């Protein structure tokens, strides 16, 4: 190998080592409670639906829960909390028998009932780009009324098989909640993939069944090509051009 070619090869190798390493992507944290909006649905990556229908915001809560959710709710009806999502704004401020153990300020509450009058509620997170995600959180039953009532909480990706299924019923309040455990291993997603948490009643009920959800998704985007890599390619091209010019001059001399 000539000295010129060896020099070019060495320069290319050094540039590749220096510039080609992908930039490490930062984790983006999406928190259902902190990101909650009473004006937007979808709100960034988050959306609230009943099936494929986006829920509508209603400013007045028509039940004894009203003091605890002063900013209203997302739902299908202005007269009840069937199929609804709301943010608790004042802990312990609901009318008895609802208590501090059921409603904590800053936590998300979901109202369900039987399919004939309401139906499951979907909380959806849509991947903003290609990447991986992990998740964590807990669920609880926030309605200490009598009966075999409660809710199920089913997490899936693109309506595929369940990746986690939880239930919470009487006795499983905020301070005795059920943790999410299957989200520690990263899941791969592409831009537009939808992770859905479906909340459903465990048994038919005449009134909405209020459950609580705390859910955080840690998303790591696939790193984009670094601008340093582009700079390295440019430097290699310039160096190659310079070496060829010197080699040409030497040949003529």
Task: For the structure shown, list the relevant keywords.
253 residues; 15 strands; 17% helix; Jelly Rolls; six-stranded antiparallel sheet; alpha+beta; 34% strand; 2 helices; seven-stranded antiparallel sheet
Radius of gyration of CA atoms, rounded to a whole number: 27 Å
Alpha plus pi helix count: 2
Oligomer class: single chain
Apparent shape: globular
Structural class: alpha+beta
Order of helices and strands: HEEEEEEEEEEEEEEEH
CATH class of the largest domain: Mainly Beta
Beta-strand residue fraction: 25-35%
> In percent, how helical is the residue content?
10-25%
Distance between the termini: 21 Å
The residue-averaged pLDDT reads 82
For the secondary structure, the number of strands is: 15
CATH topology of the largest domain: Jelly Rolls
Number of domains: 2
Going by CATH, the architecture of the largest domain would be: Sandwich
Biggest pleated-sheet summary: 7 strands, antiparallel
Report on the architecture of this protein.
The strands form three sheets. Strands 1, 6, 7, 9, 12, 13 and 15 form a seven-stranded antiparallel β-sheet that branches. A six-stranded antiparallel β-sheet has the order 3-2-8-14-10-11, with no helix packed on it. Strands 4-5 form a two-stranded antiparallel sheet. The protein has two domains: 3-20 and 226-252; 28-221, Jelly Rolls (Sandwich). The protein has helices spanning 3-19, 227-252; strands at residues 28-31, 46-50, 53-54, 56-58, 73-75, 84-87, 108-112, 121-126, 131-141, 150-157, 162-169, 178-179, 187-189, 194-201, 209-221. The chain has two helices and 15 strands. Helices cover 17% and strands 34% of the residues. The chain has 253 residues and is an alpha+beta fold.
């Amino acid at each position: 190998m000539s000295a010129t070619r060896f020099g070019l090869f060495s320069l290319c190798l050094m540039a590749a080592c220096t510039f080609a390493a992908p930039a490490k992507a930062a984790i983006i944290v999406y928190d259902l409670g902190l990101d909650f909006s009473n004006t937007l649905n979808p709100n960034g990556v988050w959306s609230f639906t009943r099936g494929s229908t986006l829920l509508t915001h209603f400013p007045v809560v028509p039940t004894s829960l009203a003091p605890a959710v002063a900013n209203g709710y997302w739902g299908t009806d202005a007269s009840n909390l069937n199929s609804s999502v709301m943010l608790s704004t004042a802990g312990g401020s609901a009318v008895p028998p609802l208590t501090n153990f059921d409603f904590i300020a800053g936590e998300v509450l979901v109202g369900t009932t039987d399919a004939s009058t309401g139906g499951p509620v979907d909380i959806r997170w849509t991947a903003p780009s290609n990447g991986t995600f992990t998740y964590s959180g807990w669920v609880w039953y926030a309605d200490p009324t009598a009966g075999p009532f409660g809710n199920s909480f089913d997490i899936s990706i693109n309506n595929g098989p369940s990746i986690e299924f939880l239930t919470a019923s009487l006795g499983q309040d905020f301070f005795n909640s059920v943790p999410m455990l299957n989200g520690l291993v990263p899941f791969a997603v592409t831009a537009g993939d939808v992770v859905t948490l479906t909340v459903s009643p465990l048994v038919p009920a005449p009134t909405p069944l209020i459950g609580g959800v705390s859910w955080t998704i840690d998303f790591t985007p696939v790193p984009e090509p670094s601008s340093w890599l582009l700079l390295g390619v440019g430097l290699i091209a310039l160096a190659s051009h310079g070496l060829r010019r010197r080699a040409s001059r030497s040949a003529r001399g």
